[in-house]
């Protein structure tokens, strides 16, 4: 109890602009649980954080944008894939607070603007494209920043996915929120399952879990192929960066990070058949929409673990719905087979 109060107090000391509609609902998934005949499944609806179709990037944006404004920035520069949820949320939030947004997107400019890209455009973001085979995102963003400085602007660069300590602390806050809800519902959470992409979400959850000394096992489902080692290292680094930011005495090491990479398929942004099936199953049992890049793969992983008897009957497993639903439309061809 005291640990919770102290951790919340440390988080509350950081600059933050409240944007997301919190707490997000924690709901049971009775029909899916019954269908799979395993543990009791719950869902934390971080897809309902409110602004611009929501998602986990909104929790990060509360701290990121506050930091940018405190540093007198007037332009936010960030990066992601063409269907980046992070880019969409960053553009929306920047505009809402009167800042310009430049999105440096990895890939070719598509002929049709769809899903998140359409929304980026709608939010009036300055959208640039770059080829990853030729350049890395950071130097491209730095070049844009130089260009803007020459024009008298004060740019602020947000790393991809806002996965750096300032952003990822949003998931320390999420963990505190979830535990508070669980306590109110007399619920003993055994596992948390979520999609891991750039690592910030998992870093925030894991350091909070460590600081609070819970018994909860956090299972990150990696959505990128061949990423396990570097992503684990990155999660540890971000988690310990959060620890510094919050003045925690606990540290995280690689043993604290469980990242499963059996469900990534061919790679980032390429849906697996199991993910498509999982999206259909959750839509048709619970009426909840997942996404093809992140939560579909994470749910496919959860389903596989239930089938493989990874959980006990009495366990309470919380799936964190991290958002991403606008990408469904851009991936429409995968659903019409
Ligand atoms: C970015 C994202 C994730 C992954 O979060 P990270 O903090 O980057 O690991 C998961 N789900 C959705 C929908 C996302 O947009």
Q: How many angstroms separate the termini?
A: 51 Å
Query: What can be said about the biggest beta sheet?
Result: 6 strands, mixed
Helix content: 40-55%
Globally, the shape reads globular
Secondary structure tally, helices: 13
Please characterize this protein's 3D structure:
This protein is an alpha/beta fold and 337 residues long. Helix content is 44%, strand content 15%. The chain contains 13 helices and 10 strands. The protein has helices spanning 2-12, 30-36, 56-70, 85-96, 115-122, 137-150, 165-168, 170-184, 200-212, 228-245, 273-286, 295-307, 327-330; strands at 26-28, 40-44, 75-81, 100-106, 126-130, 155-158, 191-196, 217-222, 258-260, 316-320. The strands form 2 sheets. The protein has a 6-stranded mixed β-sheet. The chain is globular and about 60 Å long. The model has no long low-confidence stretch (mean pLDDT 97). It binds pyridoxal-5'-phosphate. Pyridoxal-5'-phosphate is lined by residues 55-57, 85-86, 161, 163, 195-202, 291, 294-295, 322-324.
